[in-house]
Write a structure and sequence with these properties.
Elements (H helix, E strand, L loop, with lengths): L1 E6 L2 E4 L4 E9 L5 E7 L6 E6 L6 E3 L7 E5 L5 E6 L8 E8 L2 H6 L3 E2 L3 E6 L1
């Protein structure tokens, strides 16, 4: 089993920055980690992902160039630096993990509880 705990959500204004963090525990060696989000009335969508080493990163078109995902040296930590936030970034953000980076983009095995990000315009 893998447990994921997010932190760092909050209320910001459009154009501001925010950093989300996620700590994983359990058997996570070799796992890809990433982020999904769910806006009110919408389905969950992929945001960003990182392979185990952090050398491979993938982003949704809607956040590429504004968001940066990074893995900690301990590899069980993943962060999402969000810059130039827009009102449409408002959502609950979920940390996810999966043994496969490809699988993580579509249907991750493990999910955190989520953290709310609200961007006021």
């Amino acid at each position: 089993q893998v447990q994921l705990v997010e932190s760092g959500g909050g209320l910001v204004q459009a154009g501001d920055s925010l950093r989300l963090s996620c700590a994983a525990s359990g058997r996570t060696f070799g796992y890809a980690m990433g982020w999904f989000r769910q806006a009110p009335g919408k389905e969950r969508e992929f945001v960003a992902a990182s392979g185990w080493s952090g050398g491979i990163t993938v982003y949704a078109d809607s956040v590429r160039g504004r968001f940066t995902i990074s893995r900690g040296n301990a590899k069980n930590l993943v962060a999402l630096q969000m810059n130039s936030l827009k009102s449409e970034d408002t959502a609950v953000y979920y940390c996810v993990a999966d043994p496969s980076l490809a699988a993580l983009k579509n249907n991750p095995d493990y999910w955190g509880q989520g953290t709310q990000v609200t961007v006021s315009s």
